[in-house]
Amino acid sequence: MALLEVDSIDVSYGNIQVLWDVSLSVERGETVALLGANGAGKTTTLKTICGDLTPTAGEVRFRDENIGEMPFEDVVGKGIAHVPEGREIFTDSSIRENLELGAYIDRSKIDERLETVYEIFPRLEERASQRAGTLSGGEQQMLAIGRGLMSDPDLLLLDEASLGLAPVLVDDVFEAIERINEQGTTVLLVEQDIYNALRVADRGYVIKTGRMTLSGTAAELAGDERVEESYLGA
Ligand code: ATP
């Protein structure tokens, strides 16, 4: 049984359908990349998994339980954390306050979780009492990921973690993703950066205009010209 199974979901915004028959699975311990052009439906897929959106058909199963209809708060409690595109950190609050907000599931574990997050992102500990708005773009992205980790998730959903960052910071973010996975968290990441995504991922899927078009191991996809074509053709 896979940790996460997205099984033939259709998803709409109002009466505009944007996903058709989308399926994917993530095994415990894996890093899986969901690739595709702007507007292909990657963010919508993540939002459906984390309970922001409800599929009109199909199922989202986590540890074999159908969570497709579950609201966001309950999904976090099941062990899924979502780091949205655009970070959404509180710039006027301190770094530590931002992190504590991510731990709303079990507040008794805050210190233990802070320690884990600071181990992965030492910079956040050095600046714990500083206003989050004073962090650089890359550091703010680390903070958003750190906040996701505060709920001690089994599955971390990362939406465009490297978007808008300078190349050296992109490398830092992908290194952090590798460390997080090595520490036992399963990762499903959405990326426009095909090269780096397939470098850290075990497997990947390609979505094009709301439909899954390709899947394979990271090595298979890295050598498949249809992956890049699916970006150009959008
Ligand atoms: P990007 O990388 O640009 O975020 P994406 O692959 O994540 O792209 P989605 O954000 O999932 O794509 O968007 C899929 C489709 O759904 C697009 O056609 C988009 O215009 C549409 N869409 C997204 N959000 C809404 C919304 N709130 N209402 C209506 N349509 C939406």
List the helices and strands and how they pair.
Elements: E1 4-13, E2 16-26, E3 31-35, H1 42-49, E4 57-62, E5 65-66, H2 72-78, E6 80-83, H3 95-101, H4 110-120, H5 122-126, H6 137-149, E7 155-159, H7 167-182, E8 186-191, H8 194-200, E9 203-208, E10 211-217, H9 218-222, H10 225-232
Helix pairs in contact: 3-6, 6-7
- Which structural class best describes the helix and strand composition? alpha/beta
Lateral arrangement of strands in the main beta sheet: 6-7-8-3-9-10
Number of strands: 10
As a percent range, the share of strand residues is: 25-35%
Radius of gyration: 17 Å
Summarize the main sheet.
6 strands, mixed
Uncertain stretches of 5 or more adjacent residues = none
Briefly say what this structure is.
This protein is about 35% helix and about 25% strand.
Protein architecture, described:
- It contains ten helices and ten strands.
- It is an alpha/beta fold.
- It has a six-stranded mixed β-sheet with strand order 6-7-8-3-9-10, with helices on both faces.
- Strand 9 (203-208) and strand 10 (211-217) form a beta hairpin.
- Helix 6 (137-149) runs parallel beside helix 7.
- The longest helix is centred in the last third of the chain and has 16 residues, at 167-182.
- The chain is globular.
- The site of adenosine-5'-triphosphate has 11 residues, from strand 2 and helix 1.
